[in-house]
Amino acid sequence: MQMVCLTDFEEYAKEHLSKATWDYYAAGADECCTRDDNLLAYKRIRLRPRILRDVSVSDTRTTVQGTEISFPVGIAPTAFHCLAWHEGEVATARATEALNTCYITSTYSTCSVEEIVAAAPNGYRWFQLYVYRDRKLSEQMVHRVETLGYKALVLTVDVPYTGKRRNDIRNQFKLPPHLKVKNFDGVFQETAGPEEYGIPANTLDPSISWKDVYWLQSITRLPIIIKGILTKEDAELAVEHGVQGIIVSNHGGRQLDGGPASIDALPEIVDTVQGRIEVYVDGGIRTGSDVLKALALGAKCVFIGRPAVWGLAYKGEEGVRDVLQILNDEFRLSMALSGCRNVAEINRNLIQFSKL
Asked: How confident is the model at residue 355, as a pLDDT?
């Protein structure tokens, strides 16, 4: 079967993954309103194409944090890639290296950060970090990834507690015995008691606050990007606390249900930040025109979560490459059909909010 669009990969993954695995990846919080709205919000946005602009040559390259990538789509941090494909994050890393874009490695990887770097030594990578009750755990991870050449830290801030994902509860979701959260191999051996997504429950620190951003700056020289901001107030605070970037994100609709679609939250954050730091967005990107819309609304780059996992489920590294390549091709075509020759020509004049 020829894979033509990202929905083809989704259908393949739904058919071929176990029910518990599919449900884990697909899960949203509570009624999944926010998860679903992430997709619907893009469909409410209309483009205003310009014509007769000589689009015979186009260039999709951009930069993030000063590093050039081939097109403005990276891989968002998602957990447990080995559930989808035996090589897991190693395959994801090779695919993003091959396409010369950014891969945000999840703390909850089923391959270690060392294995990921060994598999794709020239890849451009950021590391997604949680703050734990035991700060030493977070600090050790920071030093590990800094030494390994990761280029930024992505601090996830929307998980003081894990959202209520109904199907995971119904399925009593657990990592199969042959898989583990590789970055914490051997760390929690003493711990008896309930487990949540591969590590002991209550490991995350719900007391995390803005002062932890200063703490993080005190232990690393890496740029810090905050993931999980949805309001202009928090965007302003992020700038004031000296971070280098924001990922506008609602965690794929897996945390607070009833919050905004991330693309709907993007404009007020871009307007508040006013170019002082870079702003990115994830959640709901399924086509090249979605990428174009996000850039037109001020995102420097977008990140995809679930589609990368579908690509893995289809054919490992090759599947992730296919997903990225399809998005790249679609983005290039949407750009040209809108009259844009390069990403610098994409701006808010391209957007018409529909009257729906």
From this structure: 56
Res. 23 pLDDT band, cuts 50 70 90: very high
73, 101 Cβ separation under 8 angstroms = yes
Q: Is 77 annotated as a binding residue?
A: yes
Rounded Cα–Cα distance for residues 322 and 333 (Å): 16
Question: Hey, what are 38's tokens?
Answer: 């992430």
State yes or no: 348 annotated in a binding site: no
Q: Consult the annotation and say whether 66 binds a ligand.
A: no
Phi, psi at 121, each rounded to 5°: -60, -25
The answer to whether 224 touches 155, Cβ cutoff 8 Å, is yes
The whole-angstrom separation of Cα 190 and Cα 201 is 14
What does 105-128 look like in DSSP terms, one character per residue? Answer: E-TT-SS-HHHHHHHSTT-EEEEE
The number of beta carbons lying within 10 Å of the beta carbon of residue 52 is 6
Candidates 81, 178, 241, 251; catalytic one: 251
Cα–Cα distance measured from residue 15 to residue 351, given in angstroms and rounded to the nearest whole number:
36
Number of helices (H) and strands (E), helices first, in the chain?
12, 14
Identity of the residue numbered 272: T
* 202-230 exposure pattern, b = at least 16 Cβ within 10 A, e = fewer: ebbbeebeeebbeebbeebebbbbbbbbb
- Cβ pair 298, 348 in contact under 8 A: yes
Tell me: is residue 180 an annotated ligand-binding position.
no
Is the predicted pLDDT of residue 192 greater than 80, yes or no? no
Residue 206: CA count within 13 A, CB half-sphere: 6
What is the DSSP secondary-structure string of 163-192?
---HHHHHHT----TT---GGGTTTTTT--
Instruction: Please say whether the structural domain 6-353 has been given the CATH code 3.20.20.70.
Output: yes
Can you tell me the distance from the alpha carbon of 9 to that of 7, in angstroms, rounded to the nearest whole number? 5
**Annotation-wise, does 298 bind a ligand?**
no
283 assigned ligand-binding residue: yes
Q: What tens digit of pLDDT does each residue of 261-297 get?
A: 999 999 999 999 999 999 999 999 999 999 999 999 9
| 16 labelled catalytic | no
